[in-house]
Input
Amino acid sequence: MNYIVGLGNPGKEYELTRHNAGRIAVLELARKEKMGELVFDKKMNALVGKGEIGGEKVQIILPETFMNKSGNALKNIITSAKKAESLIVVHDDIDLPLGKIKISFGKNSGGHKGVESVIKAVKTINFTRLRIGISATNAKGAVKKPSGDKFLDYIIGKFKPAELAEMKKAAKKSAEALSVIVSDGTEKAMGEFN
Output
């Protein structure tokens, strides 16, 4: 079983915010793979869906807690290092340009509170991450990261229309990458999408 977790904040008001890039991408995967309606699981406090990708069983998890408590949904299912290896966490990344995706395995949180919560819950960094860039860039393509007070407003701010179009493309690309991770492994997906 592969566990695919889309990080974000629950509720209508956060739906199309930059911090919800992970959730947006995982919902796109669920739509693409025709997994049907996600169902609320009270024990996990998450929206959950099940399906298959390339003959491999998949469980989709969207924690219904705020970002910094994302790991709570995984505490009772990712109970060993072996299970953690089949965990794929999808989340926003302020260090990457908007729409760029990057796959990694066994990396620390890079300061991302949702990922920190997952690491704490599963007690290892040995899982796959698919990071989706949410930052604007300057004319040379370098990331323009907000700082100080502007940081929080930026990450929980809604995508502007042009950014949203870019995010939708990134969600489609992420869904493809997730399918490759599940069916052919993280290494192959890294080679193809990084």
